[in-house]
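sanity check this:
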Amino acid sequence: MDEFTKKIKYLKCRSFFPDYCGIPYTSGIMRKLAGKNANGNPGHFSAEQKKKIIAGVEHLLDELKLCT
């Protein structure tokens, strides 16, 4: 499992991915979070998915700043 995946596992991904990243939470995403693909081999997020996740985290942080 790569460092990127280890960090995002702290988020509530079931609701975070669809709401903030526009990525549907599917069994494929669940396997990537576990560090595997459908064949049981090492899996990882694509560069495009990583960009969407980072943008989603930035959006969440902006919303949290507005709450204070």
About this structure: Helices lie at 3-8, 13-21, 27-34, 47-66. The two ends are 35 Å apart (CA to CA). The CA atoms of residues 20 and 59 lie 7 Å apart.
